[in-house]
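Sequence of Sulfur carrier protein FdhD (Shewanella scandinavica).
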Amino acid sequence: MEYHSHEVVTERNVVLLEHGHASELTDYLANEVRVALVYNGIAHTVMLASPQDLEAFAIGFTLSERIVSHINDIKGVELEFTHEGVLIQVEINQRCFMELKQQRRNMAGRTGCGLCGVAQLEEAVKPVMRVDSDARFDISHLQVALGQIQDNQQHFKLTGATHAAMGLNHQGQIIAAYEDIGRHIALDKLIGAFSAHNVERPVAVLLTSRASFEMVQKAASANIQILFAMSAVTSLALELAEKSNITLIGFCRNGRATLYTHGYRLLGQHCASLAKAI
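Predicted 3D structure, token representation.
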């Protein structure tokens, strides 16, 4: 079987076992494929992802992992679909490539298994990047975005297996949405899309997943100032959001939300006085 970029969902006949009865029905599975990222001809990493919007993913990953510092440092992205998965060739400028090679040599020199993991604990944490402070968002508009989620999760409605990262404008409208089986990859796709194209930049980002440390770190790299998560916030995510000057809000569901950091960006009659203290 050869993968194509539009084959995101697989249809299968299955048997439903329910209340002591068995019945046949059609189920939909989210496809996950191996995606290899290659920089200037050198293999970097292999990930599992949904085979859609992979150019946006490659750009977003390259930026959010700080392999390059600016979109102009990426000179080209080419996709090759094979029987084994998808090969993404990313061409970056020579300075960034030399820095990436040096990083790989440093890791390989300190571990017995080459690039299988992080050599030292501190290498798991990139230097803190502080985001700008000009974004403002009326918290009452969050309900607008929550009401639009279902229409922006087509693959989740079919499979129940994908996460989404969605960009919001000042009115709470979802202006861009990207899905993937991996929550990190969904966010990378969103970052790549608004970084590579001359489109409206979101004032806030809404995640259907939890806000973990890595998600906040990616948000900081992309100067995302307001991060909403429908699920929980982890302790390290909170700590990094505080240091990075990111407004972090979790458990965004059904007219409620939990504010964790930098509430000064949130507008609204009911939250303004309390948000100033956080």
